[in-house]
Amino acid sequence: MSTINWTQGHTHRSAHWHSENGAPLPKRTVLADDRTKADDAYRQACEGTALLWQGDFHNARQLLQAMGRRIDRKPSRPSTSPSDSFHQHRRSSSHRARVLGKLLVVLDGDYNLALRRAPDLRQACQEAYGPATEPMAVSLRELLGVIGAHQWRLKGVDVPALSARVHPHYGVFAPVRGEYVDLVARAPLPAVARQLPASSTAFDLGTGTGVLAAVLARRGINRVVATDISPRALACARENVHRLGLTDRIEVSGPGLFPEGPERRADLVVCNPPWLPARPTGPIEQGVHDPDSTMLHGFLAGLSAHLRPGGEGWLILSDLAEHLGLRTRRHLLDAVGAAGLRVVGRIDTKPRHPRAKDADDPLHTARSAETTSLWRLVAME
């Protein structure tokens, strides 16, 4: 484990270094407090120096905001294409995360933050990090994300298709974009599932919060197996399945993509993979970014072998990557055909989230043209 070291007064101190984004251990760490000027903090952070905060908690948040404003002052160069806009946006976001991630705080062995006016973070940190074991240095930016995730977990996300709320965990993609849930809620079930509902089986691959598995169960699928590769997602899905009273209908299994075991086939296999073929920079982005579309291709490659006769695979996918020049429609259709599958139907919907209408968003042109589709796939005969 990496250890961050600093000197306070004449005392040498250290703490375990933790970064959910995989940020490297800072090469140099200095102390900062309420007297630290934003310009000095921004300069040192840009140079790679970490600032370990010793002052008031609310002042630390204000300093972080002030550093962010200094990043925003730097004008971006004009983009020449949608793909250029995307990569420029990613570079800017990466730079922002790298610089703002240099403002650090230390949590003690009980996740207590010994700063003036600091909130009680113990429950939020236990939910995100697990049991406390030793003092830990984290970026204030990450810690604010942990606090926000805790609030989302308590409040939950309203899902009209379920007439209930789903409670996301830290690092698990929240179903705030309801259009993909609505597609699964209204697409016609395969005929075999409608004709024999008592024996119908579905797989929900990459279940996340478990929301799509719950929708399928509420629609009458007798048995749903929900999988994910993330231990956090598996724990989150199990909790939501229990909250919704669906433990007798939904089995949460993993880590893995397709379920393992003797019952490897289903009448319906649903997959909502990350929509953009790009490298995620943190746990939350794993629900949106997937390098080389690995999950998409894994779903397509394994689908035929996991369908019962008359079964369907439902691929829920946005065409945002196409508008950004990251993937073509021909590439997607070729991958479908190469996997021994054919398209028997498609249901489209337009995004309803605010960013689709935000003209100041750097990706506005692509977002405003985006369509989310449910592709109905069957095995070639």
Overview of this protein structure:
The protein has 381 residues and is α/β, with parallel strands linked by helices. Helix 4 packs across helix 5 (140-155). It has helices at residues 38-46, 57-72, 82-100, 122-129, 140-155, 179-186, 191-195, 211-218, 231-243, 294-303, 320-323, 329-338, 364-369, and strands spanning 3-8, 11-17, 28-32, 49-53, 103-107, 136-139, 157-159, 164-166, 201-205, 223-227, 250-253, 266-271, 307-318, 341-349, 372-379. The strands form three sheets. It has a seven-stranded mixed beta sheet with strand order 11-10-9-12-13-15-14, sandwiched between helices. The longest helix is centred in the N-terminal third of the chain and has 19 residues, at 82-100. It has 13 helices and 15 strands. Helices cover 35% and strands 23% of the residues. It folds into two domains: 3-152, no CATH class; 156-379, Vaccinia Virus protein VP39 (Rossmann fold, 3-Layer(aba) Sandwich).
Q: Brief overview, please?
A:
The protein is of the alpha/beta class.
- Alpha-beta classification: alpha/beta
Query: What is the total tally of β strands?
Result: 15
Rg on CA atoms, Å: 23 Å
**Name of the level-1 CATH class of the largest domain:** Alpha Beta
- Terminal CA distance reads 53 Å
Portion of residues in beta strands equals: 15-25%
Order of helices and strands: EEEHEHHEHEHEEHHEHEHEEHEHHEHE
Feature tags:
single chain, 381 residues, alpha/beta, 7-stranded mixed sheet, 6-stranded mixed sheet, 13 helices, 15 strands, globular
